[in-house]
Amino acid sequence: MRQITTLVWIFALTICVSDPVRAKTLHVVASFSILADVVKQIGGSGVIVKGLVPPDGDPHQFEPSPDDARTLKEADIAFLSGEGLESWFQRLANASGYKGEAVVVSTGIDTISMEEDGKAVTDPHVWNSARNVIVWANNIEKALSAASPEDTAKFKSNAASYAKQLEQLDAYANVQIGAIPLGKRKVLTSHDAFGYFRRAYGVSFLSPIGLSTESEASAGDVAKLIDQIKKEGVKVYFIENSNDPRLIQQIAAATGAKPGGKLYVESLSTADGPAASYARLFRYNVDQITAAISK
Amino acid sequence: MEALLTMYDALFQPFVEYGFMRRALVASIAISLGSAPIGVLLMLRRMSLMGDAMSHAILPGAAIAFLLVGSLSPFAMGFGGLIAGLAVALLSGVVSRTTPLREDASFASFYLGSLALGVLIVSLRGSNIDLLHVLFGTILAVDSSALFLMGGIASISLATLAVIYRPLVVECFDPGFLRAVGERGAVFHFVFLFLVVINLVAGFQALGTLMAVGMMMLPAAIAQLWARSLPAMIVIAASSAALSGYLGLIASFHLRLASGPTIILIVSIIYVASLLAGPFGALRRFYARPHLAG
Fold it and tell me: Is B26 inside any structural domain?
């Protein structure tokens, strides 16, 4: 981490020396829409943030355009969530000739490891617990301050007030979900993206596809899931905004689970949708889930 | 008795217990009945690779339909794919009859353009919300509307084939004769291309555009290694495809393998086995049995 910071420092200094006027606005790239929103909250007006995977896009699978490569090459900082989420990023960074380091914002989060097909993999969907996003906010603040030291005070106060907002979201989720008996907190989703939500707020999630949407389901897995749903009495299922809903609808039809609506799992909605920012996304998901399991 | 029960558990229980397994099985049987006979005729017409070309040509139509409707509706995407596939088939037919380009060459040119257009449309949208499933398909997610579509297409395909069977076969072997008796060969050719396209549209619902061709061409190749008469080939092709669908689903169930590729791999295994053991396979040529022996 120290090496990265030094690099960013050197980078920032060269910018300051060569072009003192441009140093005021930072051009920043974030790998996907949720992270882009959080960076915007902390950067404020002086930072121009471009998210690579657009709203409603799937951050596991992404086909970058030349425009994305150009944006990345010209960026002062690139932010990644990390932990295996953006498997496409390194290729894009190499291709675009981006010289800076990518800041992995999930550094320092107590991650969940899971057994998947005999291999231990880390669950990358850290943002589904609001507490983890506080870690993000601190990491982002540090990286931004290193790149633009004169704005440090502004970044710090933005990060502090955003962290307060995140704590409120976290408390909100605990209160809402805490009111529901433990035995009823069971939900079916299309892929396994709620590990941190489960740990933070005590809701169990079942899903036919593993951590990444890149894998394909086998008949055996689907059958096992149907049995498990019947046994545990899961009553509702959700579809995701960035995923194919057909398989989950088939499973729901086989088990009698009712549709609970849509969850915004790994990307924001478009600006006119119900989850245009991380805060709204989180609140929306909590409301959807509580409404569904309290029935 | 116990062994019998275990066998029953392994081979039939999954289909008795799970609706999605039954639907997947019916879907693969429907695809087998429709696609495999078409594959045999394609092979006889020396157009084996055309199925492949066609399956790529379908992509832009399916993509445009997806963008217009906004959901993975089997009918909308099937219809879009049908239009795109027919456009490519007609255009290459016209080009090959009016220019020095042969049909395979014009097919290659049009399908590449069509494929590029499809990929472009997919990426324009920015979000690649599992349009990859158009390429790879999900046989486990086949619902009743997709099943009706596949069953309907298989029925139309078989009925049409029964009607145009004779002229089509004659056109395969002796186009000059067909013209001499006053029939228009081109009409049958286009009807046949129409059948190719609708069968690929049915196949991509379940197996994706990449694998749908597998259910068309591999069974046809298997049939050629076992039989010499056309009706026998068609029966062998359709039944080996259906058998692969069944075995593939069973394997995917017990061994936890992705279903679509497993099915195609089983057809490939049958193909390799036929290469070795079939009466017209490779081994028979090297180890020809003497006449009247044993």
Answer: yes
Kindly determine whether residue B127 and residue A61, on different chains, have CB atoms separated by under 8 Å: no
Q: What is the ipTM of this complex?
A: 0.71
Read off the pLDDT of residues A42-89 as tens digits, 9 standing for 90 and up.
999 889 999 998 888 888 878 788 788 889 998 999 999 988 888 888
Answer left, alpha or beta for residue A267, where phi above 0 means left and psi between -120 and 50 means alpha. beta
Is B285 domain-assigned? no
A244 in reach of chain B (CB within 8 A): yes
In a domain, B254, yes or no: yes
> With contacts defined as CB-CB under 8 Å, which chain A residues touch B252?
218-220
- Give a yes or no: residue B109 inside a domain: yes
Contact B255 A54 (CB under 8 A): no
Whether B19 and A254 lie within 8 Å, measured CB to CB: yes
Mean predicted confidence (pLDDT) in A31-51: 93
Are the beta carbons of B20 and A250 separated by less than 8 Å? yes
CB contacts of B246 in chain A (<8 Å) are: none
All domains of chain A, ordered by start, with CATH? Answer: 2-169 (3.40.50.1980), 180-293 (3.40.50.1980)
Q: A73, A77, A69: which is closest to A28 by C-alpha?
A: A77
CB within 8 Å of B253: residues ≥ 6 apart: A218, A219, A220, A223, B14, B21
User: pLDDT digit string (tens) for A78-119?
Assistant: 999 988 888 888 888 888 888 888 899 999 888 888 776 667
Interval B55-81 mean pLDDT: 81
Q: Count the domains in chain B.
A: 1
pLDDT per residue over B148-207, tens digit each?
999 999 999 999 999 999 888 888 777 777 777 766 777 888 889 899 999 998 888 788
What is the predicted pLDDT for the residue at A213? 57
Facing residue for A223 by CB, picked from B18, B255, B262:
B18
Domain that holds residue B157: 2-280
Say which DSSP state A191 is in. B
Q: What angle do CA B70, B73, B77 make, to 5 degrees?
A: 90
Q: What letter does residue A209 receive in the DSSP assignment?
A: B
Domain with residue B273: its CATH number is 1.10.3470.10
